[in-house]
Structures are given as C-alpha cells and as structure tokens.
C-alpha cells in the first residue's frame, strides 16, 4: 500500500513539475496604458534630435492591416492590397500546404507570412493544411453572392476576402473545427500576426457565424493583444479608441500603440530610429504602432 502511495505521489509531483516547466516557456504579455509624449512648443528644440515627425492624412484611414470590414464598413477601392499574386505561380511560397485550385490569390506579403507560419506548424508535425480561398475582387465576390445567396456569402465590398488580408484554410484530413490543423491555428496563429477572425464565442460581436477556417492578418503585436484579451477585431479597435494609448511588452520587446482620430491632416511625433507602422481602421482614425 505504501508503495502505491509513493508511486501516486511521484506521478503527481512529476505532473506538477511538467505544468510548471511548461508555463515557464509561455510568452508573458504585459499590457498597460501609457501617456503619449507630445512636446510643446518650448520643448521642440530639445526633442528634435531624438524624435521625428510623421504626417497623418485622411486617406490613411483606409490603408493598412487593421481595417475593419463588416456590414457597416465596406472595403474602399484604395484599401485593396496592391501586391496580389496567384499562389499557384509561386511554388516557393506554397511549401508545406496545398491549394484547392489553380486560381487562389493573396497579397504577396501575407503569403510570405503565412508560409513562415506553415513552416512552424511543420516543425510540430502538423502538416495537412490547404488554402481553399484567398483574395476575391469585387466581380468575383458579386458572382459568389449571386450564386450562394446571403446565407453563405457577403455582397461585394463587404467581405474581408476583398482586401487581400484574409484566407480560408482547411485540413485535408477532416473538418477544420475538429482537425489538428484547426486547433494549431487557433492556438498559434497570433504568434505570426494572424487571428481567427470569426471565433465561436464572438458571433454576437462580428455578426458572422463561427468560421474555424477563416484567418485574417492584422500584424504583431496586435494579434498578441487580441489573443491575450480575447478580443474580436471590432472589440480591439473599440478598446484602442477608448484607451487611446497603450504599451505592450513581450520577450523583452516593447511596443507603443496609439489611436488618433482623423478629420484632417495632422503631424505627430514619434521616437527617431524606431520602427513605425501606421494603419487606418476604415472608420475614423489611424493606429500608430512604434517598436522601441
């Protein structure tokens, strides 16, 4: 009896050790509000050497990776990615996954990022992925809507597929909701800047039924914050508008994120020699992300 008790205690200790060790390798994400530093006129000379100016124009509201597309905010013509390619003509980008047809298009930049994610999945022996749909122009979207109806398709201009930032990913083995590929995407896509755009628990927010196959590129660190706070894109953009300025730290790297409402062109100050990305929200402003 004592022997079995000892073995049970040993198993429990090993289990706890495994859990604790595993948690050590989980990335720690810290998110907090910060005060954006905007020098006043008297301080301009002192800050000129360590800051630079960025002009924000109204047209930037409709450009970038954080554009919200839904029934209220359609895709603007200028929002469509300019680097759309036919994936079947780029074998170097389709290693590790299949294509359901020879006419699947996507932003070349997003295709590179998706390829990096597939390489990571391959290292974990999750490899039965297939892209079933990518970018659709307005004509193709309209034809799909006419054929499938409103229960299965969206009108032209109201689908994320019209941007070039979204794609439908399936498993060649089983339905994505049950497949290892679907579970891997749900758990890991955020690390590569992608999100599951229409999660099961956010149908009341997105207005779209659960789609375990539909992923969308928003970029890092936004994908990490959305994962940490369990935000749909609608919720994340509302959160940024409310907080206006937040900072996010992970693995020793820090990002400052600021929302600016735009009704006319304006100039903002950002740290010099920093990586800066600007994206509109397709509504009323832009999000400026600075990696320190």
Summarize the helices and strands and which ones pair or pack:
Blueprint: H1 2-24, E1 29-33, H2 44-47, E2 51-56, E3 84-86, E4 97-99, E5 105-107, H3 108-123, E6 129-133, H4 138-148, E7 166-171, H5 180-188, E8 194-198, H6 203-206, E9 211-217, H7 222-229, H8 233-243, E10 245-250, E11 253-261, E12 266-271, E13 275-280, E14 285-291
Parallel strand pairs: 4-6
Antiparallel strand pairs: 1-10, 2-12, 3-5, 6-7, 7-9, 8-9, 10-11, 11-14, 13-14
Q: What is the overall silhouette?
A: globular
What's the N-to-C terminus distance?
60 Å
CATH class of the largest domain: Alpha Beta
Mean pLDDT equals: 87
C-alpha-based Rg, rounded: 22 Å
Helix tally?
A: 8
Biggest sheet architecture: 5 strands, antiparallel
Which stretches are low in confidence, meaning pLDDT under 50 for 5 or more residues running?
Answer: 6-25, 37-43
Task: Give the second-level CATH assignment, the architecture of the largest domain.
Answer: 2-Layer Sandwich
Helix/strand-derived class?
A: alpha+beta
Task: State the total count of DSSP E strands.
Answer: 14
Strand ordering within the main sheet? 1-10-11-14-13
Q: What is the CATH topology assignment of the largest domain?
A: Muramoyl-pentapeptide Carboxypeptidase, domain 2
* Tally of discrete structural domains: 2
Helix content: 25-40%
Strand-residue proportion: 25-35%
The helix/strand order is HEHEEEEHEHEHEHEHHEEEEE
Domain D-alanyl-D-alanine carboxypeptidase-like core: 104-219
Protein name: D-Ala-D-Ala carboxypeptidase VanY
GO biological process, one term: proteolysis
InterPro entries: DD-CPase-like, VanY-like_core_dom, VanY/YodJ_core_dom, Zn_M74/Hedgehog-like
């Amino acid at each position: 009896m004592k022997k079995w008790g000892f073995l049970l205690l040993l198993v429990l200790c090993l289990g706890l050790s495994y859990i604790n060790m595993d948690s050590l390798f989980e990335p720690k994400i810290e998110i907090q509000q910060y005060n954006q530093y905007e020098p006043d006129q008297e301080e301009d000379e002192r800050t000129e050497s360590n800051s630079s100016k960025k002009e924000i124009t109204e047209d930037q509201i409709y450009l970038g990776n954080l554009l919200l597309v839904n029934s209220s905010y359609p895709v603007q013509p200028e929002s469509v990615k300019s680097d759309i390619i036919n994936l079947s003509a780029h074998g170097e980008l389709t290693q590790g996954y299949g294509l359901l047809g020879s006419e699947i298009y996507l932003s070349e930049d997003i295709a590179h990022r998706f390829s990096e994610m597939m390489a990571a999945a391959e290292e974990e022996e999750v490899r039965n992925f297939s892209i079933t749909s990518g970018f659709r122009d307005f004509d193709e979207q309209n034809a799909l809507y006419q054929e499938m109806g409103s229960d299965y398709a969206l009108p032209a201009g109201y689908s994320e597929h019209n941007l070039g930032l979204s794609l439908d990913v399936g498993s060649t083995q089983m339905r994505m909701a049950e497949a290892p590929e679907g579970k891997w995407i749900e758990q890991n896509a955020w690390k590569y800047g992608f999100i599951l755009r229409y999660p099961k628990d956010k149908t009341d927010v997105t207005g779209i039924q659960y789609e375990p196959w539909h992923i969308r590129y928003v970029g890092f660190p936004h994908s990490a914050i959305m994962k940490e706070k369990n935000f749909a894109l609608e919720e994340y953009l509302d959160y940024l508008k409310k907080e206006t300025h937040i900072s996010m730290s992970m693995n020793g790297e820090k990002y400052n994120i600021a929302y600016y409402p735009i009704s006319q062109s304006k100039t903002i100050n950002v740290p010099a020699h920093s990586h800066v990305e600007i994206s509109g929200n397709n509504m009323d402003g832009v999000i400026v992300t600075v990696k320190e």
